[in-house]
Inverse folding.
């Protein structure tokens, strides 16, 4: 099997010992991009953690651990998944038996450290997987505490779907002269999505959204806002107007997020409002419409948002709000995205 673009570019960097800052979406083979060089370097005769992989969720911890196991099945190294919501005992016993690779969520990793069950003094490589999502979910303080617990002389790799400023700051603070690798997201979903834009004043956006919900008569709509505060504000306004709506962002617990997503999948919710990062990894096949309530910051964010619809061979519609101060940015976005947009006129203004 041929290596993916992120594997082709990231594996040699990590094999060389350099730090890495990589932009790569889920489903691009990024786990193997760091698992292969790590497994090449760990010493299976040393029964202590040598590689630390920090992930935002229990599901990702289990997924990454399984992939390490599959890639290293003919090696004698061991890996363990560390995450909350389950008893400490089995994880403590796995650590006590001796493991070379630890994959875990920040809070539970720190718990084991403070309980004296996890020693990171022998770690020579740290990977922050889905670093933007770690920060969006509020794990920045825990990540910093973890990075202070590992030796300064280490290799650090960050993988992120978006190159937001907060992730860049983290990379600059905790890595040294990192090589930057950017893998462009796939265009296949974008090509199956009809692109629509509407010009709207900021103060009219809620009414504009209501008009579009009526016009398209959709079952499920995903609405994107930049910030958690913006998500909550729009949810409150739509709820007061009797819409069946919910929000998802990093201030919610994992259980709350999962419950909200399940309601959306089952059709109990009409509108789901999300930040960019909180919506990553959503596997909901029937989202027919996406609304960019706030203009995407760049073409990568745009592609990520729009890719939530038009899946599994279906078509979708993406509607982008263009505010009175957005026209220059929108022109740049449209040129970089390389897809045609159709303008729609709101009845709100056509009077």
């Amino acid at each position: 099997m041929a290596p993916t673009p992120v594997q082709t570019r990231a594996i040699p960097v990590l094999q060389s010992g350099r730090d890495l800052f990589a932009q790569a979406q889920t489903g691009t083979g990024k786990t193997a991009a760091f698992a292969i060089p790590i497994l090449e370097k760990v010493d299976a005769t040393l029964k202590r953690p040598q590689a630390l992989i920090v992930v935002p969720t229990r599901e990702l911890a289990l997924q990454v651990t399984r992939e390490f196991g599959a890639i290293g099945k003919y090696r004698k190294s061991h890996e363990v998944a560390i995450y909350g919501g389950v008893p400490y005992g089995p994880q403590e016993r796995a650590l006590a038996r001796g493991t070379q690779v630890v994959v875990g969520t920040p809070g539970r990793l720190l718990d084991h450290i403070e309980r004296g069950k996890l020693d990171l003094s022998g770690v020579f490589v740290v990977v922050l997987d889905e670093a933007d999502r770690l920060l969006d979910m509020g794990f920045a303080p825990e990540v910093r505490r973890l990075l202070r617990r590992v030796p300064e002389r280490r290799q650090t790799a960050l993988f992120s779907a978006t190159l937001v400023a907060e992730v860049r700051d983290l990379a600059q603070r905790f890595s040294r002269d990192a090589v930057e690798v950017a893998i462009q997201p796939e265009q296949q979903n974008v090509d199956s999505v009809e692109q629509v834009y509407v010009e709207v004043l900021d103060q009219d956006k809620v009414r504009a959204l209501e008009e579009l919900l009526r016009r398209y008569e959709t079952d499920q709509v995903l609405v994107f806002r930049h910030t958690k505060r913006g998500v909550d504000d729009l949810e409150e306004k739509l709820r007061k107007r009797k819409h069946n709506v919910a929000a998802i962002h990093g201030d919610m617990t994992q259980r709350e997020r999962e419950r909200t997503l399940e309601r959306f999948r089952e059709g109990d919710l009409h509108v789901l409002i999300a930040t960019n990062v909180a919506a990553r990894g959503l596997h909901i096949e029937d989202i027919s419409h996406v609304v960019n309530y706030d203009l995407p910051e760049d073409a990568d964010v745009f592609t990520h948002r729009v890719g939530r619809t038009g899946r599994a061979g279906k078509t979708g519609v993406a509607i982008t709000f263009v505010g009175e101060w957005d026209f220059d940015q929108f022109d740049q976005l449209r040129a970089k995205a390389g897809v045609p947009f159709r303008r729609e006129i709101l009845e709100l203004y056509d009077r």
